[in-house]
Design brief:
Structural class: mainly alpha
Largest sheet: none
Shape: globular
Order of helices and strands: HHHHHHHHHHHHHHHHHHHHHHH
Radius of gyration: 22 Å
Number of helices: 23
Number of strands: 0
Length: 470
């Protein structure tokens, strides 16, 4: 393992320049709406200057090699979240550093757990609040690979770390830079379509932009305490559900559909096909349940809530309080997540398929140890997933234990652990008083969000002696 400090500074310089673009936009909006411009303007100048200084470091022939990128990405997430927390800390009254850092991390990882009051945010801070989710939807690193023309020595590794899911399900073009540009272009295009859809439903342009940022990124933040229910418009919910689904599907399928005119791309891709069948099965089961049980009825709000969970948006719908059995089922469904190469969280459906195949193989082998199956010779992806279930369970339990040590009860700690690691959001926090939670609870939960947004294997590898010895 060899870490090149100059190479790392240049990478961080590009990241800070990209992030400063959001701050410059907020500065312009402050001037347009006649709001205090000082904080955003100072931060814009300072961070842009820092980025220009960092990228001016002379190029070296040595690049960061091997697993040293793990540490760089790990530090990157913490540094960019700390910088993103500054506007919240300075502009929202009575906001502590832990609250500001938690809110920024929740936005950039698209977890969508909110602790800061929306009523205390000005229009520009609301826009910034939502823009963090847009930036984190496909990942800051993907935007860097798409925007900056310089070639990265470890571009493929960076792309695979930032876009969660099995490596074989993410890159859809020969060059990583081309994949990043296509990924970013599709993401922006879908966001524009979502904005237009909300505006056609009668939504104000400012609110349409902000809500579209949260919908496509499957983040879960909103500009109103009641979320999309504030608009009292059923068409808005239908548009939101459709684009939540689009954000949860593989962007490789979007590319084939929009640019290669392959209209059956979503059904020819195994992961997307299984994911769509899974959604149809869930909704079909619920509608079938209403047919046989007169005490249970499903309406548009339930459909919106369930779609929010399946896409890991995690929006809390006021007035819907599922019982314990429904809440447990929704938790399991949310942990599955969306497709690899999407903006959704969770463990990704490609991994769910592979885990199911491993379960089937083990079960058949137990029945007949001499039976030969068609997929007995596992590929590298299958071998890498053998310990995935244990790592996921380990992550939930470790962070749950740390949260219990920080003062939460057992059920509260496990709820917050699952919501943070799976990047699902506030829907899973039925009984967690997070706004009044302590300093350590928010920092531990923020770390769980980083683990969930990065690859879990990559995150835990940093805590092994073998990694540092190498």
């Amino acid at each position: 393992m060899r870490l090149n400090i100059v190479d790392m500074f240049q990478f961080w310089g590009k990241a800070t320049l990209l992030f400063s673009s959001i701050l410059w936009i907020c500065s312009a909006l402050c001037w347009y709406w006649d709001e205090p411009i000082g904080v955003f303007l100072v931060l814009s100048v300072a961070i842009s200057s820092l980025g220009l200084v960092l990228i001016k470091f002379p190029h070296q022939r040595e690049f960061t090699h091997g697993t040293a990128w793990f540490l760089e990405i790990f530090l990157f997430w913490h540094i960019i979240s700390a910088v993103a927390a500054l506007p919240f800390y300075w502009l929202i009254p009575n906001t502590g550093w832990a609250d500001a850092y938690f809110e920024a991390m929740s936005g950039l990882t698209t977890t969508g757990i909110q602790v800061l009051p929306i009523s205390s945010m000005s229009h520009v801070v609301l826009f910034y609040h939502q823009a963090l989710q847009f930036l984190g939807g496909i990942g800051v690193i993907v935007f860097i690979l798409a925007i900056f023309p310089e070639k990265f020595q470890n571009a493929a590794r960076l792309f695979n770390v930032e876009v969660t899911g099995p490596d074989g399900n993410k890159q859809f073009l020969t060059k990583v830079s081309s994949s990043a540009r296509a990924f970013s272009g599709l993401y922006v295009m879908l966001t524009v379509f979502c904005i237009i859809g909300f505006m056609l439903c009668g939504m104000d342009p400012f609110f349409a932009v902000c809500e579209a940022f949260a919908t496509i990124s499957t983040g879960g933040f909103s500009v109103h305490e009641w979320g999309l229910l504030y608009y009292q418009n059923e068409a808005v919910l239908y548009v939101a559900m459709f684009f939540m689904l689009m954000g949860s599907l593989s962007f490789r399928c979007h590319y084939l559909f929009f640019f290669r005119k392959s209209f059956l791309a979503y059904f020819q891709d195994r992961e997307s096909r299984y994911f769509l069948a899974y959604i149809i099965l869930v909704f079909g089961s619920l509608f079938l349940l209403t047919w046989f049980r007169s005490d249970f009825s499903i309406n548009l709000l339930w459909c919106y809530q369930i779609m929010s969970m399946l896409s890991t948006t995690g929006v809390v719908v006021s007035g819907l309080k599922p019982n314990v059995s429904w809440f447990f089922l929704l938790t399991i469904l949310a942990c599955f997540g969306g497709c690899a190469g999407s903006t959704a969280g969770g463990i990704k459906f490609a991994r769910v398929i592979h885990l199911y195949r491993q379960f089937k193989r083990s079960l058949f082998y137990f029945i007949n140890s001499h039976q030969v199956m068609a997929d007995d010779e596992q590929d590298a992806l299958g071998l890498s997933l053998q310990g995935l279930g244990a790592i996921i369970l380990w992550s939930f339990l470790v962070f749950g234990f740390l949260l219990m040590m920080a003062g939460l009860s057992v059920d509260q700690a496990l709820q917050l652990s699952v919501a943070s690691v799976s990047c699902v959001g506030g829907m899973l926090l039925q009984s967690v008083p997070l706004i009044k939670a302590g300093y350590w609870v928010k920092l531990i939960s923020s770390e769980a969000m980083v683990a969930g947004r990065m690859e879990l294997m990559l995150f835990w590898a940093l805590f092994t002696l073998r990694y540092w010895r190498k």
